[in-house]
Design brief:
heterodimer; A: about 260 residues; alpha/beta; Elongation Factor Tu (Ef-tu), domain 3; Rossmann fold; 2 domains; six-stranded antiparallel beta sheet; five-stranded parallel beta sheet; about 15% helix; B: about 90 residues; mainly beta; five-stranded antiparallel beta sheet; 1 helix; 8 strands; about 35% strand; globular
Chain lengths: ~260, ~90
């Protein structure tokens, strides 16, 4: 990265991130090892698709731990939803994944992140096509973008390339199937370990063919790519995008560490 | 940005992971600010710099040359911020 990026569309800067008390008001099981938690956050100023919150737990003795989680759904009043994947260790995730019950409270800081965000550009003559590339639970902020597109009625060409180990690990499977059949969203699942019997693509990690530009996309403006996943996944995907003609001005990436996925 | 954030300090995350602590000091989200490295003079947005959390504190490094750009430590009574490794911060309005 040696050049200054173009101005981000949307509300860069935005409301000042600060800490808010949050109460758990919704729980939804996504897979055997992941669930979505919806919090009621009084005073929440709203957020953009792709932003995240810091979640803080404080024990009775004053010890506190915090972690960052992507928001999984567009702004909806004072509600903030995150999807948590069981990881086996850590201080915060096991509580969010298993221990926390409806009515329980914690603190969230946000909205954070004015860079890895997408907003509809309905005023543009041709909306910019968007390629979303998610590895494992890296799909979470991308799902917020997919849902924001549907919520806003945007017609921007959207394609989600979603890499998962096995069919059982697919987050938001039913909703993605619904949106891809009714809303013009293209969803391609890449299975890295186990594929369903009828899958055309052999199992394996992401390849250049998986990211080829769909034939129906406009020649201009050039598509923008959002990549989110474990560090190794992102580092694998970015060179493929550069080979396809994407640049450091049209790629936005978010890595979440060596594990996960 | 989904969990788990690695706090061992051995593995770099994106600057995005450090945006929360910096937002407290800068009174706003700094993810889209362009930070220029005081070592190699290359520029990138804050979100795409390298972040190391739990050092204790937060360290921002240049992804090109690994130069320390910023260090932030918060205690119960004060915040300590060292920006001496970066030559400039440019904020979009």
């Amino acid at each position: 990265m040696t050049e200054a990026p173009a101005r981000t569309r949307g509300k860069v800067g935005g409301p000042r991130p600060r800490w808010f008390p949050a109460r758990l008001v919704g729980l939804r099981s996504e897979t055997a090892t992941a669930r979505t938690l919806t919090f009621q956050v009084p005073g929440w100023p709203g957020h953009l698709a792709g932003q995240h919150v810091d979640v803080r737990l404080t024990a009775a003795d004053g010890y506190s731990a915090q972690r960052a989680y992507s928001i999984s759904a567009p702004a909806d009043g004072e509600q903030v939803s995150i999807t948590v994947q069981e990881v086996g260790d850590g201080e915060v995730s096991p509580y969010l994944e298993e221990g926390m019950e409806l009515g329980d409270q914690l603190e969230v800081r946000g909205p954070i992140g004015g860079w890895f965000v997408w907003s509809p550009s309905s005023e543009a003559p041709v909306e910019q096509p968007v390629l979303l590339i998610g590895g494992g639970s890296g799909v979470v902020p991308l799902m917020a973008m997919v849902r924001e597109r549907a919520r806003s009625g945007s017609r921007a060409p959207f394609r989600l390339v979603y890499s998962v180990r096995s069919p059982e690990q697919v987050l938001y499977a039913a909703e993605l199937a619904e949106l891809s059949s009714t809303d013009g969203l293209v969803v391609d699942l890449l299975h890295t370990r186990t594929a369903p019997p009828d899958a055309a693509r052999p199992v394996g990690r992401i390849t250049p063919e998986d990211l080829a530009t769909p034939p129906g996309w406009p020649a201009s403006p050039p598509p923008r790519a959002y990549v989110c996943g474990p560090t190794a996944f992102v580092e694998l995907a970015i060179p493929l995008l550069l080979d396809l003609g994407y640049t450091n001005k049209t790629i936005r990436a978010e890595r979440f560490g060596p594990s996960g996925g | 940005m989904n969990s788990p954030i690695d706090t061992s300090g051995e593995s770099a995350l994106d600057g995005s992971a450090a945006a929360g602590p910096f937002a407290d000091v800068f009174a706003g989200d700094v993810s889209a600010a362009v930070v220029t490295c005081g070592g190699c003079r290359s520029s990138a947005v804050f979100a795409e710099q390298h972040a190391y959390l739990g050092a204790p504190g937060t360290v921002l490094r240049c992804p090109g040359c690994d130069h320390v750009l910023a260090r932030l430590v918060q205690t119960p009574t004060e915040v300590w911020l060292d920006l001496s490794g970066s030559s400039s911060w440019r904020f979009p309005l």
